[in-house]
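Thread: Newbie trying to understand structure tokens

Hi all, I'm a second-year student working on a class project, and my supervisor (Dr. K.) asked me to get a predicted structure for one chain before our next meeting. I've only ever worked with sequences, so writing a 3D structure as a token string is new to me. If someone could post the tokens and maybe explain what I'm looking at, I'd be very grateful. Here's the chain:
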Amino acid sequence: MNTQDKYTLADLVIAHALKNGAQQVSVSIDESRNNNIEIRDQQIDNLTESNRSSLTINLYVDKKYSSHSTNRMKKDELFKFIEEAIFATRYLAEDEFRILPDPALFYKGGGADLNVLDPKIASLEAATRIDLAKAVMDEAYNKDERVISVSSNYSDGVSNRVYLTSNGFRGDFARSSVTLSASVSVKTDQGRPQDYWYESSLFLDKLKKTGIGKMALDRTLRKIGPRKISSGKYNMLLENRVAANLMSPLYNALSGYALQQKQSFLAGKMDKPVASKVMTVWDDPTIPSGPGSRHFDSEGLALSKRAVIEDGILRGYYIDTYYGKKLGMSPTSGSSTNVVFRLGNRDLEAMVSSLKKGILVTGFNGGNCNGSTGDFSYGIEGYLIENGAVVHPVNEMNISGNMTQIWNNLVEAGNDIIEGSSSRIPSLMLENIDFSGI
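---
Reply by user tm_fold:
Sure, no problem. This is what the structure looks like when written as tokens:
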């Protein structure tokens, strides 16, 4: 089914739903094709290809709301499906806040090409995908006598969506992605440390294809001989690949759902300090070939670059139409696009070399954060740094504190973002963080 066929079908679905008693309707038709190849110790362990198509209809019937999905695309079957869905919706409780967005907020078209689709990925031969995964495997397999297992993975995906609403929105988009990764484990007298590395891109030609297996092996070998250190307050360097883990509770607290459910430690903080002045974060859907770039969100709301935190001051929440109605707030979008940190001047290596004493955190192992208060505790692994050099690996340690407190302790942002990620967060330096060890 091509794009025009999807528009035609969606128009028919909306007309039939309105004819049968719905006051408002939205319809999305989605198609995706995904491939995954996993090689473990030189043997193909998993090879899958999936092709999926589905139609989702959201119904607003007599102040009642429901959402239904099907992969039946024949008109007669769809019409019966819609009639049954409307009948079932009438049995639900009323919800006065369920309504389609104000058409004035819809994306009207005319935006620049964001260049997020590589059409070549869909036609790539299986043998090429396997060869790419094998090349990653060969960089680590049998390269050290302590290695007990190596796995490499190739995955790609191409997806497209057509979205229409009964009050005027019409839009479509398509995107692609491709990832290569490796994971290595080794056997030592102290256990079996393991680590990984990956590279991802929207375009196969731009994907870094070498050094992945070697990096996974090197990172694993550096973990040999970990030790706990004394509890106390240490400066913490947060590697860019795990910085998003610590940002996640902050972003969860920005959602309309969390605010309305009183599960956000950032409620009532608009235009107030929530972090140090070092921290400026934008939501930017306009980055050419950005993994999170798009012109409109899942509701059809037009998107633009906006500050979320500016010089430590909270400037914006993530509010969709439903929670905007409940909270009496203007919708901004209920989801993030590209999360972009304001960068500093140094990369991780330079930041390590300047650290007199601290801990470089390269991974999190469990833990939790209380969304209402911001109190958290996380297991970590990483390295003790003294006089600008790695002393030894550390594990079986926790960091704890409060989210607002820890982000107020941010003293430096690096310049080393991961281009293939929608979380463009560099390595970060935070001071006086509570570590518990021995």
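A couple of things are worth pointing out once you decode it. The first helix runs from residue 3 to 19. The chain has two domains: 3-221, 232-436. Feel free to ask follow-ups in this thread.
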